[in-house]
């Protein structure tokens, strides 16, 4: 299990998928999978401007290696979808992450 610390101040969420990236260069904001990529050993330079785990060649023998997998798509959905409270979003991401051995923790 990989521990993933999501800093709420830097977390880009709830604004739809179009502007979401693993790391948005100009703002330094990240989606939940950006924090996961860093926790799995990728650098900020490797993830900046990239939209999905597949776009960085995520190849760790991990369920997220396939960017079209239900696990990847589910995490992206929970991160980006409109109309969820942060508490609902955090719970959904945490539960989905556990299925792929990512233990998401959200901190201020």
At a glance:
With 108 residues, this protein is α+β, with helices and mostly antiparallel strands. Helix content is 34%, strand content 11%.
Question: How would you describe this structure to a colleague?
Answer:
This protein is an alpha+beta fold and 108 residues long. The chain is 34% helix and 11% strand. The chain is built from 4 helices and 2 strands; from the N terminus they run βααααβ. It has a two-stranded parallel sheet. The protein is globular, with a radius of gyration of 12 Å.
Topology, please?
Elements lengths: L1 E6 L24 H8 L4 H4 L22 H11 L5 H14 L2 E6 L1
Parallel strand pairs: 1-2
Tell how many strands the DSSP assignment holds.
2
Structural class label? alpha+beta
Major sheet summary line: 2 strands, parallel
Strand content: 5-15%
Helix content: 25-40%
Number of helices: 4
Along the chain, the helix and strand elements come as EHHHHE
Oligomer: single chain
Question: Which regions are unreliable across 5 or more consecutive residues at pLDDT < 50?
Answer: none
What is the CA-based Rg, rounded?
A: 12 Å
**CA(first)-CA(last) distance:** 22 Å
Mean pLDDT: 90
Main sheet strand line-up: 1-2
